[in-house]
Amino acid sequence: MSLRIDILTLFPDMFTGPLSESILKIARQKKLLSIKLHDIRKWACDKHRTADDKPYGGGGGMVLKLEPVYLGLKHLLKNTSETERGLTKVILLSPTGKKLEQPKVKSLAKMKRLILICGHYEGVDERVKKFIDEEISIGDYILSCGEIPACVLVDAVARLVAGVLGNPLSAANESFEDSLLEHPHYTRPREFKGLTVPEKLLKGNHLQIKNWRLQKAKEKTKRLRPDLFKKYCKK
Asked: What is the pLDDT averaged over residues 179-198?
């Protein structure tokens, strides 16, 4: 199953590098992932293609206007059937949204289509939120635009689309699965400046290796992310 992602943005060129390299590049080449960029200014209502304006009530900064965002969504959702709409999520990238975590990434990867709206300036006209399904934040800090969070979301979701990763175990064994951080990894050389690879990884006993990795994942999570470890212990 392929995933289509439409991105409404004021700065399409910001996506050129991130969407054209590494796993995302391969996923697009395999037709497992379709990403289309849409300049919000295309739907601006004046000859100057104005997409922002001063906030009512005064204050610093500019606010992303409602009309171009609404018209852009209307265009993208035109001719979408009820069934297709049920497999589509319209998402506003916003610091006021729910924090993006792996369970949400998993649920989004099951969709057929995502439409991402990149906020900018001081934010978006509040009425935009009447036309979306949810808001998502990538963390409790302020960025200058929603394009960077959109790249983060796209990368996280794309990894879980069937066929994108060569080895399906790569996604299943990563950090935040089962509320644990990922176990330590090692590769050649076996020894470097006195630093060696743990013996249990060298003996070929798959059960021992599995148990060692689980134990190290628990230790790592308890030390670095006690909040996640508490979640794990409650399961």
From this structure: 94
